[in-house]
Amino acid sequence: MLHRRHFLQLGSLGLSALTFSSFRGRMTAQKPLVLSTWDAGIAANKAAWQILRNGGRALDAVEQGVRVTEASLNCCVGLGANPDRDGYVTLDACIMDENFNCGSVLFLEKIKHPISVARRVMEKTPHVMLAGSGAQQFAVAEGFPLESGELSEDAKRAYQNWLKKSEYKPVINIENSKRQEAFVPTKLENGDWNHDTIGMIALDAKGNLSGSCTTSGMGFKMRGRIGDSPIIGAGLFVDNEVGAAVATGQGEDIIRICGAHTIVELMRQGMDPETACKKAMERLLKVKGIDKAKAIQAGFIAISKSGEYGGYALQKGFNFAVCHADDKNFLVDAKPLI
Ligand code: ASP
């Protein structure tokens, strides 16, 4: 059926027809392959790729990849992120491997790499989730340094700005709309806007899948608020027989439809990743209602066991980074539902 296959022309990226193809809109890459949410995913994919290109395990790739974003102090993920409305940065993360092993941390403070603590929860405890001071106690016992908790310069400025009105209007940024004045966006060195969560999914050379997700949640959220990102099935789900999916955006609504698990189950029924993400997004829209949905953003990305991949957004502005070769790490604009 080669004559029915058309290879995407990605101009300056010079993507090779042998490794990247689109068949009736279905995007496929040879393994290994890594995807992550938003433009910060380009840097994260680079780190993940170093592991994947050497035959490494998807689990190691998704951990090391998002650590780059967590460590970036001018980013809305990790300790440099915007604080809650009481002025504290609280972090959520989860990780899942090819054998249904999973771990997560919620409401974790003063620890630089929540994703690695989530992995330790998965590997060193009989549990899946640890929260708050218990998660921090576990992290410190595992040798993770306790950081000062001081806000980054960007976060200080954003928080001071927010305090002027102290209006509690938790909204996940919609990239193509004007942000709330208080939600001062931070900038990467290259001038791109940065975002609040990084979700990463990878397929390694052996054909095994894994995923990770790490976030500070919403800027100026109510103290104790947790979104979808550390919740297995909502923010992230991996079934090594079928595929993997990860979410970003308004966590409350992603939880309501068990976003990532729903996408994987739709792929199990035969849908390609983009269609599965779209169907899950349609469910979110139906539950939320069009009027309320217009005020929020959500994005899903997914990989199938065979290396097909795709994503879908509620609104315009969501993109994801795809990497499947040394010189093939690029952004894809997700189609919007609204
Ligand atoms: N999903 C995250 C949350 O609700 C936020 C985000 O993806 O930007 O906590």
UniProtKB/TrEMBL annotation:
<feature type="binding site">
    <location>
        <begin position="225"/>
        <end position="228"/>
    </location>
    <ligand>
        <name>substrate</name>
    </ligand>
</feature>
<feature type="site" description="Cleavage; by autolysis">
    <location>
        <begin position="196"/>
        <end position="197"/>
    </location>
</feature>
<dbReference type="GO" id="GO:0005737">
    <property type="term" value="C:cytoplasm"/>
</dbReference>
<feature type="binding site">
    <location>
        <begin position="248"/>
        <end position="251"/>
    </location>
    <ligand>
        <name>substrate</name>
    </ligand>
</feature>
<feature type="active site" description="Nucleophile">
    <location>
        <position position="197"/>
    </location>
</feature>
<dbReference type="Pfam" id="PF01112">
    <property type="entry name" value="Asparaginase_2"/>
</dbReference>
<protein>
    <submittedName>
        <fullName>N(4)-(Beta-N-acetylglucosaminyl)-L-asparaginase</fullName>
    </submittedName>
</protein>
<dbReference type="GO" id="GO:0016811">
    <property type="term" value="F:hydrolase activity, acting on carbon-nitrogen (but not peptide) bonds, in linear amides"/>
</dbReference>
<dbReference type="InterPro" id="IPR000246">
    <property type="entry name" value="Peptidase_T2"/>
</dbReference>
<dbReference type="InterPro" id="IPR029055">
    <property type="entry name" value="Ntn_hydrolases_N"/>
</dbReference>
